[in-house]
Amino acid sequence: MQFKSTAVTFLGHKLTDQGICPDPGKVSAVREMPRPLDKVGVQRFLGMCNYLSKFCPNLSETVLPLRNLVKQNVEINWSDSQENAFNAAKDLIASSTNLLYYDVKLPVTLQVDASDEAIGGVLMQEGKPVCFTSHTLTDTEKQYAQIEKECLAIMTSMKRWHQYLFGKHDIIVQTDHQLLETIFKKPLNTLSRAALKENCAVELESEMVFRAELEQIGLKPAKMSDCTLNRMKEETRKDQTLKCLLETVRKGWPSDKLMVPPCIRPGAFEDASSDCTNSVEERNVGKDSQVSPRC
Description:
Helix content is 38%, strand content 15%. With 295 residues, it is an alpha/beta fold. It folds into three domains: 7-95, Reverse transcriptase/Diguanylate cyclase domain (Alpha-Beta Plaits); 108-214, Ubiquitin-like (UB roll) (Roll), CATH 3.10.20.370; 226-264, no CATH class. Strands 6-5-4-7-8 form a five-stranded mixed β-sheet. A hairpin with a 3-residue loop joins strand 2 (13-16) and strand 3 (20-22). Helix 1 runs antiparallel to helix 5. It comes from Paramuricea clavata. Residues 78-169 form the Reverse transcriptase/retrotransposon-derived protein RNase H-like domain. InterPro entries: DNA/RNA_pol_sf, Retrovirus_Pol_polyprotein, Rev_trsase/Diguanyl_cyclase, RT_RNaseH_2. Residues 271-295 are annotated as: Disordered.
């Protein structure tokens, strides 16, 4: 028995007077693991990574090439992509961040981000991380618009840390998508995803403040390559439907939906109720999604 000890190792975690960090023995075990030769080996490595995921930002996106190997009817084909993911995951765990102990008396900051393949979040107090989380998107979730992925990141993080956030009214949500503030202020029946509606009904009881600037704590914003962006701009200028949509957005949506050009009418009002007058929020539904031109 030890008294006045400043550090105790417990269930793969090292509890110190400064916070929580992963057990160095667990970190060494991951670092020394050889390259997997079969699905069982890949699953074993992913299991070790998942156990330490609370210390690592964006771990799900990092190990995505490895996770694809354990899918059904997929043969093991170890390429440079898997090798890079394997080494990157080891490095991420080796450089894992020390976490603060959660203090129920302090306000909470929830910082989230979403990419094409995964979503991630970090729970912070006084500008320091308390816990990280990340989640690989399902095939259905990958079809969401980028702003809906950001919304999903918020709701998934709040559900993940329900034990910390339930009943708190001093939660600050930091995201690089200003339009999310508009979405969360809408009536629930104007949200386009049923899954988000269900979660919002419970989670939005907390008061939240959105900030357009995103202070990066290991979270990487989703970026579009210059080549893809330039091509999208070029094809958008050629697409007659999108040209009409852009012109309508610049001038403002008509108060009477019958005045909306027929080519954009179905998408612009798909979420609006047919038996009531459209509100300003409902007329802006079409502004929240990224639309790709025909090419």
